[in-house]
Amino acid sequence: MSEFAELKINDKIYILPIIIGTRGEKAIDISNLRKESGFITLDVGYQNTGTCKSAITFVDGERGILRYRGIPVEELAEKSTFVETAYLLVFGKLPNKTELAKFSASLTESSLIHEDMLNFFNGYPSGAHPMAILSSMVSSLSVYYPDAFHLFEDDIDSDVNVPRLLSKIRTIAAFSYKKSIGEPIVYPRADYSYCKNILNMMFWSYSKPQEPDTFKVKVLEKLLIVHADHEQNCSTSTVRLVGSSKVNLYASICAGICALWGPLHGGANQKVMEMLDKIVEKGYSIDQFIEKAKSKDPNCRLMGFGHRIYKTYDPRAKVLKAVCDEMVKKYGVSEPRLEKALELEEKVLKDDYFLSRNLYPNVDFYSGILFRMLGIPTKMFPVMFAIGRLPGWISQWKELHSTVPFKIGRPRQIYIGPEEAHYIPIEERK
Ligand code: SDX
């Protein structure tokens, strides 16, 4: 493979460096293109544009491979915990026993939010979407931890804002749920694991003082692990772009939460469940949904199918589909939405419209069924995605700030507006 590409414009040839990634991905470095040629490139949706070199996550969309720091997501889902996977992503290696104990302790120490923040919840109407609450609460954390504004002066690795945010995001999420159902909040417990605390803070109550079911805690671990990072997706790219202005970590993550909320991205899990609810509760036919999805109406997309990168089965969907089966076997209850999802998948994967466009189930297709089986309300699904993705966002944000040279993200454009014009006094306007 040559180390350079040649670009011929008119009669001039420009030599552009070629970069090869670990797994052979190829890029043409155009960092100096405009300076040398006066040209920029145009790539709507960044379908062909890399914004960074990264050592965190590898995705092979053609072969359905996802690895965090080189480790396949399937292995981590089977053998690891979410806290250990978060450490792997954020610090670049699996922790030894001492490192894991210290990291876990830092999460436990930071699990409470400032009591003043409880007042925020009272200001929201009961039907407030929990992603609106989560994004504003995360951004507001910077008010209580102003040391976050000096993050860049200190070593990010030892920064307390990383465990703080990882720990508090679940407390904020659980508190927002309790507020939405009018129940007293349940505080995190020092003797519970990260995921056990989430389920306990959400579902323990004085009328049902039950400890979270161990199997369901393990299911939540797997759910959060498969969501933990996914290289330069929409919300992660947002975290990087906003973070490149050197704003604090909380504001950068707040932006990522807002981007994730979109139904084309992390909000798809909520839309998948609403689609399956309609099919089960209103008796909508699956064939109707499939036909409407082919109608090209962007509002009739088959949510949970298709992916910018995966042109085969999303490996995360495979993991979660298997966990759905485990849940049904464990509790012996069939979940009608799972049956409809399996029927929908079977029909779609026989339909040339979808196969010809490489539209397969993605992570959002089965995750919603599992969240539902855990008792999590539909509007909270994107919040669970955000909790899972937080270690990925933080790891990418850290990598951005260790990049040399450090550049603020500022894309160019091709202007197609009017030529120079001049002000017209209102009396002279038509
Ligand atoms: C996530 O990027 C990531 O890594 C994201 C994510 C992560 O971990 O961060 O993996 C998480 O966001 C998963 C995706 C969740 N979104 C959905 O499930 C929403 C439904 N899917 C889509 O809207 C769509 O597939 C996207 C947004 C996911 C990808 O869109 P692209 O890459 O821009 O593809 P496209 O819109 O150009 O579609 C290509 C073709 C089009 O048809 P043609 O114009 O070629 O005839 O496929 C069709 C589309 O109409 N198509 C669909 C479809 N998705 C694409 N048709 C029906 N139903 C769908 N779901």
Which cofactor or ligand species appear? s-citryldethia Coenzyme A
**Main sheet attributes: strand count, strand direction, barrel closure:** 3 strands, antiparallel
Order of helices and strands: EEEHEEEHHHHHHHHHHHHHHHHH
Low-confidence stretches: none
How many separate structural domains? 3
What Rg, in angstroms, do the CA atoms define? 23 Å
End-to-end Cα distance: 62 Å
CATH architecture label of the largest domain: Orthogonal Bundle
CATH class of the largest domain reads Mainly Alpha
Q: Going by CATH, what is the homologous superfamily of the largest domain?
A: Citrate Synthase, domain 1
Question: What overall form do the CA principal axes indicate?
Answer: globular
Q: How many helices in DSSP terms?
A: 18
Mean pLDDT: 94
CATH fold description of the largest domain = Citrate Synthase, domain 1
> What is the count of β-strands?
6
* Strand order, largest beta sheet: 1-2-3
Percent of residues in beta strands:
5-15%
Helix content: 40-55%
Structural category: mainly alpha
